Every structure is written in C-alpha cells, then in structure tokens.
Amino acid sequence: MAKLFMEAGVIALTAFISPYHADRERVRGMVEHGDFIEVYCDTALEICETRDIKGLYKKARAGEITEFTGISSPYEAPISPELTVNTGTTELEACVQQVIDEMMRRSIITTARFCKESSNQP
Question: Among the four residues 16, 40, 62, 117, which has the most C-beta atoms within 10 Å?
Fold first, then answer.
C-alpha cells in the first residue's frame, strides 16, 4: 500500500513491528534509493512493558503468547538507521519533531507545522 502512495507522489509514513534486519532490508529494496528512511524508535523493553495497556507483554511472559518480539522472539536492532529517536527519554512531541526535521533535511518536505492534538478542538 505504501508503495502505491509513493508511486502517486504521496509521502507514506508507516509503522511496523519489524524485528528482523533482513525484513527491513527487503522493504528498503522495494523502493527507489533514498526513498526509504528507517526510523528506529529506541525504547527499553521495561518501558515498552509499562506502556502496554493491552497486557500483551504480561501474557507473553506468562507463556500465553508465543513468539512475542522482545520476550520469546528476538529483536534485531537496526545496524544503521537513518534516524534514531529514543522514546524512553524524549517526549513524544520532540520525537515527532526529529522525524519532521529529518524529512526537511532531506528536502522531502519544505515546511511543517506540528500541533499537539487537543481534546477541545473540533
């Protein structure tokens, strides 16, 4: 789907649990050189567990879920991502700004305005 958007000239930002280096490289090879920007959301496993509102990590640790990334299945950290954001030590808005800044640095976008969503806006 993202490739179709890209072919139409639309920027596609996608988020995947992609624990294996080979899978990420396969996707990189599907698009034009320079059109794939790997953003590594570097977050400690303990922090991921505290953010887990569905209780999936707890179930994985109890053996109720098999092949769960980071618990019973490995995660291969990226070797050289284009951008790393540490979501454990950096506020969400700053992480978003890092992605926007990287896109601007690469001239993918020329201007951007990031507004924190507010519950009182329509």
Answer: 40
